[in-house]
Amino acid sequence: MCYCNPTFDVRCTCWVRNHDGTKNKDFLKCPMRVETTYERIMCEREYYKKIEKDGFDSIKKEILKITKLSEKDWADIKQIYEDLNKESEDESDDESE
């Protein structure tokens, strides 16, 4: 059973696999699945490099295959990425003025 909520540290939320390597059947029901997946993507060097080189959607097929998330979940993950990048661009613009 999943008890995750927005106050949890993302490192403690559900993931596709349990700590013992077995499949986590509750992952798709987890209310934190989108945030957790985004954090996992950004912390994984291989994905981060692909995103830098080819854009965020370059990892979509692989992530959806691993996680079994929906297209809507992917759109939400991408929106988090775009929002956070826009914020960092805005901060950079403020510093250069």
Name some characteristics of this structure.
single chain; 97 residues; mainly alpha; 4 helices
Distance between the termini: 50 Å
In DSSP terms, counting alpha (H) and pi (I) runs of 4 or more, how many helices?
4
**Could you list the spans in which at least 5 consecutive residues all have pLDDT below 50?**
none
Rg is 15 Å
What is the helical fraction, as a range of percent? Answer: 55-70%
Quaternary assembly: single chain
What's the total count of β strands? Answer: 0
Proportion of residues in extended strands: under 5%
Q: Calculate the mean pLDDT score and round it.
A: 87
Shape: globular
SSE-based structural type: mainly alpha
Give the H and E element order: HHHH
The largest sheet is: none
Task: Describe the protein in words.
There is one protein chain. This protein is mostly helical. It is 57% helix and 0% strand. It is built from four helices and no strands. The protein has helices at 33-43, 45-54, 60-67, 71-96. Helix 1 crosses helix 4. It is globular and about 50 Å long. The mean pLDDT is 87.
Quick summary:
The protein is mainly alpha-helical. The protein is 57% helix and 0% strand.
How do the helices and strands line up, and which of them pair or pack?
Blueprint: H1 33-43, H2 45-54, H3 60-67, H4 71-96
Helix pairs in contact: 1-4
